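Let's sit down with a protein and look at its sequence and fold side by side. Which protein we use is up to you, so please pick one and set it down. Label the sequence line and the structure token line clearly, so we can match residues to local backbone shapes. Go ahead whenever you are ready, and we will take it from there:

***
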Amino acid sequence: MCLAIPMRIKTIDGFNAVCEAGGVERDVSLFMLQTDCIEPGDHVLVHVGYAIQKVAAADAAATWRLFEEVLASEA
């Protein structure tokens, strides 16, 4: 099973970006999205260090709400 995490892009340098989710920052490759218009503030799905899809901010927030529900049910 694969899992992609929605993250917000903070900065972009070429095909590399610093992305943030839940207070955690990661270096992410934008190489797979080089034909998309990506800007700081956009949300992307990140899988093993690669942004694989641009997503709407509302969709990213909805996904995080679902993640939080799953984590809360495990506690």
Summary: The chain has one domain: 5-74. The two ends are 23 Å apart (CA to CA).
